[in-house]
Amino acid sequence: MKKLFIFSFVILTLLLTSCAKVTVEEKIPEKEPGLQIQTFDMPEKEQYENYTFGKEGDKTVAEQRQEIKDGMDLAISTKVTPSIKYYPEYKSDREGYEYIDAITFDCLKIAENTVRTFAYLGFPEGASKDNPVPAVVLVTGGNGYPSMDWVKIWNDRGYAAICVSYNGYFPKAPGTVYYKERDITGSFVHELTGDFYEEGFRRVPTQIFKPKYDEVENHWQYHAVSQLIFAHNVMIEDERVDSKNIGVSGIAWGGLTVTSLIGYDNRFSFAIPIYGHAYLGDEIRSTSNFEKPYVDALWAAERNLDNATMPILWMAYSNDPCFAIPQHVNSYKHSLGQNPKNTLSLIGAGWSHSNNSAFAKIDPLVFADWVTFGKAGYVTFLTQPEGREVDCKINIPENFEGEIQAHICYLTSPMEYVKQGDNYYLKERFKTKKTALTVDTENGTLKGTVPEDAKGYYVNLKFDVEGQSLYSSSIYVEIEDASKTVE
């Protein structure tokens, strides 16, 4: 099969995805008739359907995509409980961690070997068949060590939780427990060893998005995503869990993996990607080989994001060195109209990029409680700002109490990311104007004028839940020049 000349239209596609204006239309979500939400038609991506990135005779993109989908569907339909093993020697001896177990479960195969995965699984005290609780699947960032502390945070909130070692790390010896960053007893190793070794089993491939052709079963992302589907099944099959209320949350690499996951497994009741997102190949700041056509063709999460109809909280750090605001905004735009609770939260001063920083935020817990129990939740945008005159409609939950502030976060030069070491940072930090907008809570409107020197901005709605400040953000609006990245 002859290869196509692709590079010119790949570049054009990436430019269109990150910079092009979009067509706006109104849709009425089925779940809340009468609630009109502004939506966006995102630029079409190159499909590469009949193209192969391998040699002549290798599988086409369409064939490899079908293999990926078939693998995910197999994971969804597989009963995982018979493969679960418990390891009491790897439980914590700290007070308050009694209900958290160390387990392994089995996933898809690579050749003749089955991928085995380590995880922490915890339940709130009192969870039972007669008293089932909601649950959450958790995916950390960085090296992907599972965090016992993150499980406990959700257990203390009333949720069962499973935190998955999706990168193939296992405790080296009994007594090893990973609580959180800078709090670990013992060490983790990137292999099945000691108590976890068994012939015919292996860990997942090394964490990398392959830029060149390979069989699907050898791709890390194929197993990273399918492991989370199996973890979802662990929860669904446990009689202590309310199987209709299981969400998922991931941090950084875990966040981008969750964004892929929800395109294949839409059984989740909510999704909270933290830092990570879709549209990773956009020119403004490409991530982890996603600018490479082969990676984009197989693994760009936006290709399947239409399938994600659960409520999504896109939670972002506005000066993140690893991810870019336009990509967060594109992910949010793509999901608008798919669920009325979909929210973008761009958080600036006082936050940072780390697992521990994510653990410390109450925002995911509030969002989950809003979806699961109908508790106080997020104020959301029904229409988005454009130009210098802000005139938006907002939706205020019925049980919301308290004040809503509206801040304009703006740049006085075109958005630009500059490289420092291995990371990218905004060249200019956002300025905040707190008095330019007026919120009318009775009519659900937001009006005001953007500062004259602003070249781009977004609006943050600030409100308190449980004594903590939360933020609901609009899209980013470019007033003049396009964003750019400088090497």
* Tally of separate helices: 9
The whole-angstrom Rg is 22 Å
CATH architecture of the largest domain: 3-Layer(aba) Sandwich
Low-confidence stretches: 1-31
Number of domains: 2
**Total count of strands:** 28
Name the beta content range: 25-35%
Q: What is the CATH topology classification name of the largest domain? A: Rossmann fold
Features:
487 residues, alpha+beta, Rossmann fold, Immunoglobulin-like, 2 domains, eight-stranded mixed beta sheet, 29% strand
Notes on the structure:
This protein has two domains: 7-375, Rossmann fold, CATH 3.40.50.1820; 381-487, Immunoglobulin-like (Sandwich). The model is unreliable at 1-31 (pLDDT under 50). It has nine helices and 28 strands. It has 487 residues and is of the alpha+beta class. The strands form eight sheets. Strands 3, 4, 5, 6, 7, 12, 13 and 14 form an eight-stranded mixed β-sheet that branches. Strands 19, 22, 25, 26 and 27 form a five-stranded antiparallel β-sheet that branches. It starts with 6 loop residues before the first helix and ends with a strand. Helices cover 21% and strands 29% of the residues. The chain has helices spanning 7-19, 61-77, 148-156, 220-237, 253-264, 293-299, 325-335, 355-359, 363-373; strands spanning 23-27, 37-41, 85-86, 100-110, 113-122, 133-139, 160-164, 170-171, 177-180, 183-185, 188-189, 201-202, 241-251, 271-274, 313-317, 343-347, 380-381, 389-395, 405-411, 416-420, 423-426, 431-433, 437-440, 445-449, 456-465, 468-473, 477-478, 484-486. A hairpin with a 2-residue loop joins β9 (177-180) and β10 (183-185).
